[in-house]
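Complex 448.
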Amino acid sequence: MGINERLLKRDREALSDVMKLRFYPLIAVSGKGSVIKDLEGKEYLDLNAGWAVANTGYCHPKIAGVVREQMEKLSFNSLISVMNESSINLSEKLIELTPGKFQKKVWFGHSGSDANECIAKIVPLASGKPRIITFVGSYHGQTMGSYAMSGHPAQSKFIGSGNITKIPYPYCYRCAFKKEHPGCDLFCLKYLEEHILKSVCPADQTAAIVIEAIQSDGGDVVPPQGYLQGLQDICRKNNIFLILDEVKVGFGRTGRFFGFENWGIVPDVVIMGKPIASGLPLSAVVGRKEIMDCGVALHMFTTAGNPVACTAGLKTIEILKNEKLIENAKNIGDYMLKAFKSMHRKYAVIGDVRGKGLIIGIELVKNRETREPADQFAALVAYRAYELGVLFYYAGIHSNVLELTPPLTLTYDEADKAIKVIRQAIEDVMDHKVDPAKIEAFAGWACN
Ligand SMILES: Cc1ncc(COP(=O)(O)O)c(C=O)c1O
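Predicted structure with pyridoxal-5'-phosphate bound:
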């Protein structure tokens, strides 16, 4: 048995399945920019960035440098009871970056899940209203409150909380109301206002609406023009907080610092995580003071907002700006989207292509008329691309959307390689060159 097989066996035997969502047998050893290497030194162009975390690329020397420095100066103290300057600096920076001319405060955690959990707990308390509205297909996390707010099949195994009402996300390719944009005149918003807020989840009992600016794990769904602005209007009119979960699309990915900035809205609260500290465990919630100060010692974790992670967070923001990675995300993203749109014209299996900046979804279907999801095809394409040295996963409520969320350091040459390999992988699967037995051990989202 080679070293690779031995490690795979040890992983199978020692690591719990409940923390796994595997698509191929990759063991990462090192990384640089958008490329990671496996045990045998084979290079992979990573179009996933470790689930949209490595926005500044892998092993950025400046991140490594400040982490080492901070580790040697003050490796840790708990922000719960002892203050440190790095954490204060980052909180002030996040307040400055988050739109809204009102007083804001910051909470720190470790993951997108605990940040969404913060919302599930404190927003009803702060507003004195018990209910929250979220969206079908949304992914907010794996702790009980964030689970309850989620509408993704991955979180459907538990009975959620009774105070959450889930409404359809504006997923125009699969409109829940069988309408077409723009002719629909955003009927989904009328449905929210005239049905949900009147009879199912009364406006005067509703604390917040929580939404992803692009519904990522739900299938990289980009809302139609006017939707988020219309949602903001409904929130303002009904005295409901508008909360944006930017865990996956924040920090430059869409070509703007926050994804919602593409639509000019100003949320009351913004939830951040994943890329915020270039891979160190850190999350944040930035919101109106009256929400964030609704009590003391309500949602605190011993190691949250520690000086090392916060130092990496500050450097991450500096790198995004100084290295013009946000502009790069927009330019390379536009370039790739154009290439995939032209692929869409050529391959019938591609039902839809959508995205903004460097979050791109390629939705695969068995039939363009019926739009029946091609989930196994998607799994095979992801596997074949891995064999060809390009990494991405598939997402979506039907597990049929190839999801591309590369590091924002991606170059045009790398984008060309990505496009070429994806085309090749699609053709290889069409030509039955990929044995479905290969993916049997890697159920991905289908494990749900
Ligand atoms: C939008 C969004 N919110 C929250 C989370 C949960 O984040 P984490 O896995 O860091 O707990 C995710 C994870 O994919 C996400 O995409």
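The pocket of pyridoxal-5'-phosphate is lined by residues 51, 111-113, 116, 139-141, 212, 216-217, 245, 247-248, 273-274 (CB under 6 Å).
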